[in-house]
Amino acid sequence: MLPLRTIAFLIWFGGLSAGSLVIPALGVANYMLIYQVYPEHAWWHIPIEALGIRYSMTAAVCLMLGILINLPRLPAVRPVLSLWDLCAIGMMFTVGFGEFIGLPPSADSVALTDKFIKMMIFVFCLTRVTTTRTSFTIVMWALVLGSLYIGYDAWTAPRGAFARGRLEVVGGPDFRHSSGLAAHMSAMLPLIGATFLATRSWFLRVIPMVSGALAVNTVVLCRTRSAFVGLLLGTIGAVVLAPRKRRLKTYVAVVFAGVCAYALTDSLFWERMSTLRSPETLKQDTAAMGRITIWITARQVVAENPLGVGIGNLPKTLMRVDPKVGRRAAHNTFILCITELGVQGFALFAVIVVTALYYALYCHRRADRTSDPPWTRFMAYGLVLSILISCGTQLFTERLYTESFWWILALPGCLRRVVLHDLETEMVPLIQGSSYAEINVPASENPLLPDGIAPGPLA
Question: What is the pLDDT of residues 230-288, one digit of tens each?
């Protein structure tokens, strides 16, 4: 007899895989959940391990088949290619050309190139499918449920999952280390909060509420300073960018969340965070000073290789430039980008991040003209904070080749397409009566419009 968790997983995976052939958004959610849960690392996967199922590939194939089957019925994607899309395509070419203009390919570079291309293929599927309010909501709930599972896994983790007081080996491959896990869960917090606020059912609101609490607990257990810096930046953004009409409620929510988060911390957490208080304490921290040495050496790498050393080649390049540094990681996403992908890759990446922020802010400003202003405003606000937290966190950790980070960067473009669709079909009041007319429908074809009255253009 299979364990109940194994049976539940098979029902979920089989159901969503089949459902994605009819509703592609379910395929997106399925892939995201598999990525976060990563069944290969779970004890309940052992009874079915012999089946040899490649879950991510199966979910991706079912998603693509669903897109092809439902292509005539999928909502139109407008614009077909945005600035974000073009820059993302440019990043793919930059990664590919890096194999030729950088150092000779290695096993690490080939594996990372393969991962990056597969990752971007899914991102483009995400941006093509998630163009309606319903599909966007499905994706957000996939992130909430995935965070709920990871948070529960962290909450029940045994003593053996901790190294030097920090939580390790929880979640998928991108979360196997405390810094990656904390970075992911920190970025999920605003999205969980947005889903909580946008959900009208108080019964369903319990799920993101529990997910958020477990996510905060996971970040605390990781005890990483990078996540602490990211959350500080996110908190500042939450206060500065708070909607005017809901500013007081937002401030109260931020204070309440801060008090709850503080209640989950312990002396070990604050002992580690205390090294951020002054330059003197940082100088006494060998890990922090080691990163500064790496970044100084990386500057020399950029000077010698302005077009980049190629994906996956920075660690051995650092050792060649300065043997004292050794074979080390960059511990900074932006430095990793400019050293491995060159100034051209860094320029594209910067445009992608800025464009994602712009799209989210655009949706926030246009929320009142959509069919569901509160939902749009909450989602846009959550995405802005998630990007800010991610950027703050990545000043001290690497997430350039991490899938969930690219989901966060892609979602503002998805939300923008939802908003643009609403603006194209915006309902404006007629001069006489209380009827409404779609401004994108010609006057001759709109039965609601009296003779001689034509809808005006979009502002």
Answer: 999 998 888 888 777 777 777 777 777 777 777 767 666 666 666 655 555 555 555 66
Count of CB atoms situated within 10 Å of the CB of 417:
24
Give the residue ranges of DSSP H helices in 305-372.
314-321, 333-340, 342-365
Cα(77)–Cα(296) distance, rounded to whole angstroms? 44
Closest listed residue to residue 216, CA positions, set 290, 161, 151: 151
Q: How confident is the model at residue 159 (pLDDT cuts 50, 70, 90)?
A: confident
Which of 150-159, 172-181, 386-395 has the least mean pLDDT? 172-181
> Residues 157, 100: contact at Cβ < 8 Å?
no
Provide the angle, in degrees to the nearest 10, between the axes of the packed helices 403-424 and 178-198: 20
Q: What pTM was estimated for this model as a whole?
A: 0.87
- Confirm if 320 and 297 have CB atoms less than 8 A apart: no
pLDDT (tens digit per residue) in 305-344: 999 999 988 988 888 888 887 778 888 999 999 999 999 9
What percentage of the chain's residues is helix, strand, coil (to nearest 5)?
Answer: 75, 0, 25
Beta strands 166-167 and 427-429 are: unpaired
HSE at residue 277, side-chain half, CA atoms within 13 A, is 9
Q: Helices 24-37 and 107-129: crossing angle, nearest 10°?
A: 140
d(C-alpha 87, C-alpha 347), whole Å: 9
Domain range list for the chain: 81-107+150-422
Token duo for residue 427: 């309902």
